[in-house]
């Protein structure tokens, strides 16, 4: 439809119809005998309002969506189609590793493919928009939503934001296999005080702009169709009604011209925040801030008519929002084809098809991070008798907290994969204990006890017997999937006590034990580190997690993931991240000086730093070599290292470039990653890895608030993780 027609359509709509467009309803409200209508009615939302709504959240399935779309359009005075939106996060039915795990792959293009395949399944199931990617920068492992992010690094997050947006949206939003992407949560949602979800966010303007905005910007630059506001306040104002943030920063500065949607109920919540005086005030503030769609707080349908008729809010603001929504419907091709990619037959064939499963396997394999491997304990060797023990050995739920469309029944477990892929290997299987300590209650989730009827003593004994009988043990331990995701902040970052007890007992019986971890956040791994000979971080690996793990443990695949977030020594260090500022009193162990920046009882360094990860072979990295010692703004410096595979297997390494501005008008981080390269080498092979350092990589928000570089000395560090100290310097003239 050309723009003129959209303008005519807008002009012909009644006020009530226009308000309908900015109102998002949950699919439950469309159900015939909807119980969900009750609370909405209390807010003054009528059945007619529901029937005029512009977008729907939470309905899926081609047949169902086509039916609703047809009936809805017939009823609508201007036959405007609905947009169906849903959280398709790490996959639709084929579930890929959680986003944090995808971050660990350091392979944004692979995540782009996962997004593309997820869009293919979801579009066949009738969906038009996904609430992904989440690009919130995260530094605090207590926050349960770190699992939805790709980690703590500005550069890495930007790469993933771009790749995922491109993967979902493809070349053409109107395409039958694409989804509109929605980057979230704007802004700063990943920095809640004390890691408690929905809590206050306080960031200096420079930190906010330099660390938190770039990944959203990367999505905007990639043409993301929607942005979602965040629940939190940013510097004392709830983001959702923050006009400066949404209009000046997001739209004017960052150049976003798509649809801005609130998070679930977030407009109404600004009353609880103590910013809006009542729901009418909240509606006015949100519209003035440029929030186009009210996700489920009901504030727009309840209050906008009276605000506009009473002259409190200009109808032009509403028209502006409605036009953006109509434009999105147009870009999605819904006026020409309201059913778009929805196809019940295709839905059956693409969902969980072998191509998607193979990609899920590859993505899982690439996301695994080998944290420890004493004496080349892994990979396991054929002929060894290996006990696979722990609550995750035959667990189906490997999908993570945001895969409510994924069905755990589709998952291939570790045990199933071992039996199928490695029938000639000698494995013994035992569960040992449940995931959670008996009696654990997760607030809001009720009781999470599973298989309560299992004989706990017998389970424990079978595990001990298996450990005794085997040459080696691999323990499969982790968090419960409900311990990560939204509203799952934790103050204790250890494995459940019962699993720690199992670890201690099994390793006492058989010290030749490795641990595979399933978790959605960095954990305090001290006990695991002390007791296990090898540690493989497997995150929540998705539908094909079992096969990916068996292939990795048996050496058919090699772990090459790197940590996208620092793993703290213990919770007392959190938030801990590599790109911290230097202090005036830096501490370097084992300095005995009392007045230095340190703890009395724990180290400053995380247990495992950002960028860290091993493979099954070893590499040497030479000292950094620079081709020049000085450069002007128009020039560049090339930094090189020689990397050699010093082991006896082929392997992959991720060589990372870090820069440090030694003295500037504001304090600069001790190092910041500015690039990385994955290289694969045969045993004994070596290669040169070169990075070109250009002036724009040296820019930051200077003391006067401009984005620029400053002349002076820069240190260049290249190595295998953020802990690298090998450095050389050059001068920017
Ligand atoms: C609330 C979450 O914060 C957001 O990420 C999600 O997209 C919406 N609910 C819709 O499910």
What would a concise description of this structure say?
The protein is α/β, with parallel strands linked by helices and 733 residues long.
Question: Can you give a write-up of this model?
Answer:
- Helix 19 links the parallel strand 16 (472-478) and strand 17 (513-518).
- The protein contains 21 helices and 29 strands.
- The mean pLDDT is 96.
- The chain starts with a helix and ends with a strand.
- Strands 9-6-5-4-3-2-1-10 form an 8-stranded parallel beta sheet. A 6-stranded mixed beta sheet has the order 11-18-17-16-12-13, sandwiched between helices.
- Helix 2 runs antiparallel to helix 13, helix 8 runs parallel beside helix 9 (205-221) and helix 10 runs parallel beside helix 12.
- It is an alpha/beta fold and 733 residues long.
- It is globular and about 75 Å long.
- Bound molecules: 1-deoxynojirimycin.
- 1-deoxynojirimycin binds next to loops.
